[in-house]
């Protein structure tokens, strides 16, 4: 009688063990997804910091550019997603890309102004008044500007690589089977990659012409 009683409970025991295993697996998967999602979100803050530094730098450079160029730069920066009054951190990844493209356009305007000899155009070469060097030559203006551009670009590219790596890892984890089942049920959305726009790829800085003697 004891054996028959145990046999009758066996299916329930097996089902209970399977349920516990599934729950345990779901918890492990959930925790892994949360960890990867948080890592991707944290990495995005590096891009935010790099964009904020670049935005502040361009604004400072624009303040050193007189006349029409400064107005054009302010218009370019003002036409981005920041016009909504949100901070860079509050923008979506696509809006951050839009902002970076706008900053590229603004920087191109400043580079063009920096290449003008003093006394020509709308005002003195960019960065001359900013650095308080009234006798600074055009080539010195552009060389200084080139260094600052390269430094900000390197910081942004480093932050972009770290974020894209973390976002790709998270996206891959949530898309593989059977993890995708848990991800969909619990609402784990994908993270967009921070990609350079086609316009950004086309508008590479051409400083060689300015540096010719």
> What's the CATH topology name?
de novo design (two linked rop proteins)
Under CATH at level 1, the class stands as Mainly Alpha
Low-pLDDT segments, ≥5 res: 119-136, 200-213
- Biggest sheet overview: none
**N- to C-terminal distance:** 104 Å
Tell me the Rg in angstroms: 27 Å
> How much helix, percentage-wise, in residues?
over 70%
Order of helices and strands: HHHHHHHH
Mass-distribution shape: rod-shaped
The structure class reads: mainly alpha
Mean of all residue-level pLDDT scores: 78
Tally of DSSP helical segments? 8
Please indicate the percent range of residues in DSSP E strands (runs of 2 or more).
under 5%
Overall structural domain count: 1
Tell me how many strands there are.
Answer: 0
What is the name of the CATH architecture?
Answer: Up-down Bundle
Organism: Glutamicibacter creatinolyticus
InterPro entries: LemA-like_dom_sf, MamQ_LemA
Coiled coil: 135-169
GO cellular component, one term: membrane
